[in-house]
Design goal:
Blueprint (H helix, E strand, L loop, with lengths): L2 E6 L8 H14 L4 E6 H4 L16 H12 L2 E7 L7 H9 L8 E7 L9 H11 L3 E9 L2 H4 L9 H26 L2
Parallel strand pairs: 1-2, 1-3, 3-4, 4-5
Protein name: NAD(P)H-dependent oxidoreductase
Pfam family, one: FMN_red
GO cellular component, one term: cytosol
């Protein structure tokens, strides 16, 4: 059973991204698809990026913990909001913090917005950054328009049948990539 990290990338006080991250955590556990580790960037409260972890002389325990949790994960799901067509500085901060930890890591992306487009504009800039650090981005995407109208604060979907149908297609692709990655690593 794979171990899956879920990053809730928004650090805003009231954010809808965590709703989607909680939905996936609940869905993965209910379907017994793997174990999960929710990495809420709001809870971490990282300082602004100063240096990549591998070059830090005295990294904080918090930074080392985050890096270890990403390293341990077989795959990472990034749930990110779209802010003005891009992703938040909090996400860029943790992507730049690590390097080897992202190498060939299967990463799935769920985009979140308050509006009708589901954060689809953020994908281009995020894909470019993830490709540059040699992450393996899963081709399936999970855009969530009007997140506040589709998931409650605990991550419960207001239309469970539709959300779970979409989540199955998305997680099936992510889990396939994780399995393929494991098989390639052992050959």
């Amino acid at each position: 059973m794979p171990h899956l990290a879920i990053i809730a990338a928004s650090v805003r006080t009231a954010n809808n991204t965590k709703r989607v991250a909680l939905f996936f955590q609940n869905y993965i556990q209910a379907q017994q698809l793997g174990t999960t580790d929710l990495l809420d960037l709001q809870a971490f409260g990282f300082p602004i990026f100063e240096e990549r972890l591998s070059f830090q002389e005295n990294p904080s325990a918090q930074v080392l913990d985050f890096a270890a949790r990403i390293r341990k994960a077989d795959g990472v799901l990034i749930c990110t909001p779209e802010y003005n067509g891009g992703y938040p500085a909090s996400l860029k901060n943790v992507i730049d913090l690590l390097y080897e930890e992202w190498h060939r890591k299967p990463i799935a992306i769920a985009t979140v917005s308050d509006g009708n487009f589901g954060g689809t504009q953020v994908i281009t800039s995020l894909l470019f950054t993830l490709y540059k650090i040699r992450a393996w981005v899963v081709p399936a995407m999970f855009p969530v328009p009007s997140a506040q109208n589709n998931f409650d604060a605990a991550g419960k979907p207001l239309n469970p049948q539709q959300a779970e149908r979409r989540a199955k297609i998305f997680t099936d692709e992510w889990l396939w990539c994780i399995e393929a990655n494991k098989r390639m690593a052992t050959t």
